[in-house]
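re the bet — no i am not wrong, look at it urself. input seq straight from the record:
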Amino acid sequence: MKICIAQTEPIKGNVSANIEAHKRFIELALTLHAEAIFFPELSLTGYEPELAKKLATNQNDIRLDIFQQISDHNRIIIGLGLPTVTESQIRISMIIFEPNKPRQTYSKQQLHEDEFPYFDNGIGQIIIKTNDRKIAPAICYESLQPTHAENAFKLGADVYLASVAKSLNGVEKAYDYYPRVAKQYAMPVLMSNCVSFCDNFLSVGKSAVWTKEGALVGQLDDTSEGILIFDTETEEVTKRMLKNNR
């Protein structure tokens, strides 16, 4: 299976512009025969906790219909980030589109203490089942917590997908921790990060892929937009940069 991770530079709070950008990433991934593509944490709004309440929506937002159409037509799985609202609660979520299937929402279960004033914990782990692979999404902070990967493994996951918005310090922790997770559970780890400023920090990209042996086989730089496509059978990685059309 060919799984793509995107490294994006979101436009703060501009959902419409970010949707158009996501479409370009997906088009590029499709030319390389990707069967799934995943984006960074809160990719359609940018990681902006103070804007989350105003921007929060749900998986049935009609603006997202285009992604279901793309998924159905091209038989590609798409995972993108949005703040979602349930009753009075706001959550950090990934909306998952699968070909000709109902949409799913996975919400970050373990929050960093800085997020508590803005967000509520999600409940339950989603496992994306496709072909012979089972992909476990993880969103930023929780992906560095041992209980999350352990639970995903117990649920049968064989690919660990970290959708993040990380500063240099966070990326350094990830580069130390993710290879150990990969090796411990014999499952590849893919990290999709964004670049440029988010909230009150600089997100430094360096999106990467580690094999089930914990070997780093592909990475992007700290400033550019692009994609990595990991072939789960051959463990080869294809890298492409995205021309900035802004």
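see?? The longest strand covers residues 77-86. told u. also The chain has a mean pLDDT of 97. so pay up
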